[in-house]
Amino acid sequence: TAKPETCQVKTTCPYCGVGCGVNAIISNDQLIAVSGDKSHPANEGRLCVKGAALHETAGLEGRLLEPQINGETTSWDQAIEHIAQGFRQTIETHGPDSVALYLSGQILTEDYYVANKLMKGFIGSANVDTNSRLCMSSAVAAHKRAFGADLVPGCYEDLELADLLILVGSNTAWAHPVIYQRILAAKKKRPEMKVVVIDPRRTATCDMADLHLSLKPGSDGYLFTGLLSYLADHHTLDISYIAQHTEGFENALRAANSITGNLADTAKLCGLEEQDLHQLYDWFSRTDKVVTLFSQGINQSSSGVDKGNAIINCHLATGKIGKPGAAPFSITGQPNAMGGREVGGLANQLAAHMDFSTPANIELVESFWQAPHMARSEGLKAVDMFQAVSEGKIKAIWIIGTNPVVSMPDADFIRDALERCELVVVSDCMAKTDTTACANVLLPATGWAEKDGTVTNSERMISRQRSFLSAAGNSRHDWQIICAVAQAMGYKQGFSFKTPSEIFAEHAALSGYQNKGQRFFDISGLSELSPKEYNQLEPVRWPLTKGQQNGPLRLFTEGRFNTPSGRARMLPITPQAPLNQVSEEYPLVLNTGRIRDQWHTMTRTAKAARLLNHIDQPYVELSLQDAQHYGISEQDLVEVRSTQGRCLVKAKLSAGQPAGSLFMPIHWTAQFASEARVDSLFTAIKDPISGQPEAKHCPVIIQKV
Ligand code: SF4
């Protein structure tokens, strides 16, 4: 028999925002193994257990392989025509805002680009949002307020160079394991490097912490405004940096002092011992190289934007930004949350980091796209979008690569809204999800191993995700499907792309179009790649203008920001307690998060048996005190109930869980456990600026069943 042909393809992991490089080993059109790509700067050869099991999840079981209309298999031509006609008629009768697209941080930049272009330039509505709204939109808004644009100043290397690393609202060990490994290795080399974890729970990340601050849930804003007051009181501000490179300092300090001007009061507001809080403040004030890594514990809050700005204020006030080992650093959850932001795939964005606030930018994008129906104002953000579906204002919605019936707050409301909607189109690579169950039209999309394009990780690094397996069944790439629908709707000109490299070239060209240095996001240096160069593209950071080979490791090294004055804005922050407070009826606070070995709604990771070895069933974690109070023992079946719904799960007692609060993982769906969809418990409370929903603070009651 002939020896099977084996080859290796470099690609990028499809899970978290670390964006690890992966070597895929292929034999006879099968993915037989993976290894970490040593040449990729994000992971330098490392992979976490999810990434290392990628080849165990690439099989065909569970895949959606044929288009369907109302449960019947159909041809692509019929499915495309059905959608085009449905969208066209809805728009003709009810206007462009009666349709919507809901995308995902899992799809590629090229997919995102054509979806955004179709809605904002051709249909004429900005009703295109994404599940990244649930992940990092508060960080985006905080960046824009402070820096004038959505710019992440640092890089992963800064996490290793820092002398003080503050991890806030992040269980890095489980949610971004390769970043955790990098920090651990750096700390081993330099034991004097201090790590502080700020999290109500004692998580696996605390194992490497010099200090764990188990603060009161939702009190992070107080902690960071308190830090600003402390820095001023102890004369450890960088007065010269403030004077030369910032504006708004006086107001920011006044606001901080009005609530958290005194250490003892701040400690009380945060539920911390005064000496522990002092320890953090003292380290921050004495250390030049400080990185504050923040994630969902900050973003998924009813005041997430303010919390982000409270953190950034402290870095600006001490000049700890734009230097090696010094930055406020937002780490994204999904592999392409940042790529989606780059093309403008959020309802309040336009394209290429421009938004609707500047009429000249709307005209610029309109002229570049030669757009026949240009959207002129923001669309509906995720929570409001599904509300409009429920109210019948949005009559046709196309959901691509995401499972909102599980992941949105008030998840039962989302399911009911979709069940009432006139036309629900769902593109997915998996056949059975809680959301595909609501679809009128189901479109089989290619999966990770088959897709070809680019993603951008949390440190602004664009990497290629390369296709190495044939498309499963009759599946097609998301960008192909979107372009086919656009053409069937009559938009022949703007959607005649034949390859992802053509789309990427247009996206890169738009980023540099009429840019005279006023926009930091500019990758025009990549706009003339030949298909071969695109295919061989090594990981590169943006900005990357014409003539450059790679973008800078850090932004703001010269202290110049993207605001009209060139100065960073310090914001006056009045910290807020979470809007949804406990009551007599619902006295406990429910927090949510990821577990180490599963990804999102488990459609892929649950295929690998070894990933279920870590944790194989949904659970609620509770403190020993609460267990005693409610008469609950380990592994008891319990009901967790809120105003919105109930879950039935097993109890897990934990010394690391503070009294008065519970924790449940986000992953389980009706497919795997009928009553464990944690988001069905949450009320859709959102940050007023970013629209990001609260996912860390839900009042509940627990009882043994
Ligand atoms: Fe994939 Fe994230 Fe794990 Fe890296 S850390 S292998 S990107 S899941």
Automatic annotation (TrEMBL):
Ranges for domain 4Fe-4S Mo/W bis-MGD-type: 6-62
Keywords assigned: 4Fe-4S, Iron, Iron-sulfur, Metal-binding, Molybdenum, Nitrate assimilation, Oxidoreductase
Organism: Amphritea opalescens
Protein family: Belongs to the prokaryotic molybdopterin-containing oxidoreductase family. NasA/NapA/NarB subfamily.
One example of a Gene Ontology biological process annotation: nitrate assimilation
GO MF annotation list: 4 iron, 4 sulfur cluster binding; metal ion binding; molybdopterin cofactor binding; oxidoreductase activity
Protein name per UniProt: Nitrate reductase
Cellular component terms (Gene Ontology): membrane; oxidoreductase complex
Source organism, top-level taxon: Bacteria
Required cofactor(s): [4Fe-4S] cluster; Mo-bis(molybdopterin guanine dinucleotide)
